[in-house]
């Protein structure tokens, strides 16, 4: 919500500081404030090359925002307490799990019979861990590759290792590479690639892989949406690296390529809060593992056909 961002910018006096606090990029904060200025017709900040200074309008708006947001929080709390008969579990998970695993879990008869109400937050591991450090109340936070990407979770969290989520080389069928075995990773170096925007957790994983192999990929597009990336690959435009759990049903014109000596994976963890309800958490993690076992054998040591 733009009003929450406004409060942080006014309080901290910096787009960058507010971005770090909220788990956004500085550019995203700047865009939110520009949108808020456009919607309200008020100039909210005096901008210079090195700083931003809130105007009187911004200070007045921030004061009103504090009251409005408090009212919204109270309404949400009231709505959430309407059915206290159901146990509630607060879960943060990253987008590829939300897209492919979560729907299967929520539709399973066993889960429907559990009578556990989920309160969900979908976000990348980096902002999820920042939210934990700010004290946000989440029972289970699902993350991946935290240690090697320079992020560490709070010591209070209990890590439960879920498994390894392999990254797959996804290429256009039109390239006719699937019948050529074995494929060496350097055979793909000169090809066009679709990679993530810099700064994302997946980008950190993939960049480290290319550096390890001494490769400089020819990046022709950047996209953080897996479904859109697959559609672009299907046109023959470029290849990509994608986590196994995000693949789902491949569109026509796309194939997964086995590459010799190129093992790359994301290590998946559930970070459990000390305050998490033990029974609900254990049940959720069991159901999660059951779904992942069916969807992605590699998470438990198998292999994708």
Would you spell out the secondary-structure blueprint of this structure?
Layout: H1 2-12, H2 15-22, H3 26-40, E1 45-47, E2 52-54, H4 56-80, E3 87-93, H5 95-107, H6 109-112, E4 116-122, H7 125-133, E5 140-144, E6 158-172, E7 183-184, E8 192-195, H8 201-212, E9 218-222, H9 226-234, E10 239-243, H10 244-247, E11 254-257, E12 259-260, E13 265-272, H11 278-295
Parallel strand pairs: 3-4, 3-5, 7-12, 8-9, 8-10
Antiparallel strand pairs: 1-2, 5-13, 6-10, 6-11, 6-13
**Low-confidence spans:** 298-305
Number of E-state strands = 13
Largest sheet: 9 strands, mixed
Class by SSE composition: alpha/beta
Arithmetic mean of pLDDT: 81
* Residues in β-strands, percent: 15-25%
Radius of gyration: 22 Å
Individual helix count: 11
**Order of SSEs:** HHHEEHEHHEHEEEEHEHEHEEEH
Approximately how much helix is present in the residues? 40-55%
Beginning-to-end CA distance, first to last residue: 43 Å
Rough outline: globular
Question: How would you summarize what this structure contains?
Answer:
The chain is an alpha/beta fold and 305 residues long. It contains eleven helices and 13 strands.
Question: Please, could you describe this protein's structure?
Answer:
The chain is built from 11 helices and 13 strands. The strands form 3 sheets. Strands 3, 4, 5, 6, 8, 9, 10, 11 and 13 form a 9-stranded mixed beta sheet that branches. A two-stranded antiparallel sheet has the order 1-2. Strands 7-12 form a two-stranded parallel ribbon. 42% of the residues lie in helices and 23% in strands. The chain has helices at 2-12, 15-22, 26-40, 56-80, 95-107, 109-112, 125-133, 201-212, 226-234, 244-247, 278-295, and strands spanning 45-47, 52-54, 87-93, 116-122, 140-144, 158-172, 183-184, 192-195, 218-222, 239-243, 254-257, 259-260, 265-272. A hairpin with a 4-residue loop joins β1 and β2. It is globular and about 65 Å long. α1 packs across α3, α1 packs across α4 and α5 (95-107) packs across α11. It is α/β, with parallel strands linked by helices and 305 residues long.
